[in-house]
Amino acid sequence: MSGFARVLLFAVLAAATLAARAEIALVDDLGRRVVLPGPARRIAALAPSIAEAVFAVGAGARVVGVSAWSDYPPAAARLPVVSTAFAIDLEALARLSPDLVIAWKDSFRPADIPRLEALGARVFVVETRTIAGIARLLEVTAALAGGDAGPALGDYRARLAALRARYAGKPRLRLFLEISHRPLMTIAGRHFMGEALEICGAANAFGDLADVAPRVSWEELFARDPDAIVGTGGEGGEGAFRQAWAARAGLGAVRRGQLAFVSSRSLGRPSPRVVEGIEALCEAVDALRQSAK
Predict the structure, then answer these.
(1) Which CATH number characterizes residue 232's domain?
(2) 231-283 residue pLDDT tens
(3) Residue 187's domain spans which residues?
(4) Which terminal residue of the chain has fewer beta carbons within 10 Å of its beta carbon, N or C?
């Protein structure tokens, strides 16, 4: 190797070392400034969507623990489970010695932060209720883990833009989006599933409610009389969905057969793959639109 080549190699290695050691400081969605001495090396991802995001930015090899139902990608499903939507297994987490815990705000108790920090881990809390929030999830996980959000973020935004362009100007349907039949629940407020309906050229019949996942009464549903009803992959599949609604023939949408079922599990998960679910939702909404003509 020539002298010049050795100098160049040394410069490249030195730059890489400095980059690896560069301090990372970000503000999380609790408003806390979180500082890491460098990219995290051992990450606990306390929500399935967070695990997906870390893998999507190319840092999956750094994930050492996940939450229940972290089933994508397959490599995430093989990792130790250290939390559920309701609790964190601190003993299991301690055995993994994470240097970073990324938690989902909607299922995380801020009171757990000191306990996690006592294990030697920094804690970063994210909120992913909106389409923009999911994009930010990719950006912050890449920054924290030394990954590259570019490819995943580009694909996510391009597919959403294509859907917006395809369904812009289509006749709008007022839909009831069912996320649970017993009890009867839907999505409202600022939520990516409500935004998905807008992208598909539909209006949420209960979009004005403040709660994100409100229970609604049958009286309210009959009073609002939506044009169509869309189910989102509950237990029992499409057969159970249609059978349950057959008993409500007094609703105009049921009487007219304006029912659709979207089986994509990704529609309900605030991860980069939500775009797959939105594509399936838009196809279902368009089929309802066509049959209503």
Answers:
(1) 3.40.50.1980
(2) 997 778 999 999 999 999 999 999 999 999 998 889 999 999 999 999 999 99
(3) 170-291
(4) C
